[in-house]
Structure formats: structure tokens, C-alpha cells
Amino acid sequence: MKGSQWVLLCLVLVMPAVAADNQYSIEDQAMGAVPDAVAKAVQASKGFKDMLAAQVECKLQGEPVTLRADRPKSGYLLTTMHACGWAASSGPYWLVAVDEQGARVVLDTGGYAITVLDTQTHGYHDLRAVEGDASGGAAAVLKFDGKQYVETKVSRVRMESSD
Which pTM does this prediction carry? Predict the structure, then answer.
């Protein structure tokens, strides 16, 4: 492995693990029960239905997150309990926005952690999402397009064996 790859992997994977109020991971100890409307929104999502189709029955847990600057704790980050459906340190997760329209899934993906950034698009905070395993890692910036979060910039690091 080249030194520059090692440094980049550390920046992608380790730096987001530094605790802060705006950082959340699928392993957060603060995860717990969520309101029924939030759980039902996730259960109706494609990602959750795909898990059920694969005969993986998982229970959900989550924690409040601030998706909108004008509404603290305006959403939830959810994942599955007991690492159900996870692969190593990456698991399925969903972001659910809660507002006067109800609860709706605005991100249906997988990975390890998100950071809520100070910048905003369409009234929602931009996000940085990270994932990784022994073969490498990735960080993506996600922006709200008015309906859901979409990737706008992705950085990937692939680990090469020194053998």
C-alpha cells in the first residue's frame, strides 16, 4: 500500500469517527425506538422491501438528526438492530424527514456514518456519508434535490496488497 493511499483511507474512515454533535453512525449507542410513522415510512421503502424479499427479517432502531437548520431534530437516522443484514462495518440505513407532510424516506442506502454539514440545499443540510472495509473506502457528499438526497461528489480509495 502506498503512503498516500493510507493517509487518504485514514481521512475517509477515521476522521468521521471523531465524536461531534453533527455526526452519526449505524453503531451509535443512542439508537433506540422511533415513532411508528417513521418506522412505517422505512418499512415501505425499496431497501427494506428488498431485505424482506431476501428473507432477512430485521427490526429497526434509530435516533433523531437535524436535517433542516430551521428545525432541530427534523428527521431520523435508522438502521437495523443487532447488525441484521450488515456486511462487516457497513449496514443499511435510512434518513427519514419529519415535517407537516408527515414522515418520508429521503435517503435509502447503506454505509457506516453520516456527517450533517453546515451547507444547505433546498433548505436541508448537505451530508457527507462514509463507508469502508478492508478493501478500501468511500466518502460522498449528498445534497437534497427537493425530494431526496443524491450523491454529488464521491471519493474512493482502493487498498492494494503489498504482496
Answer: 0.80
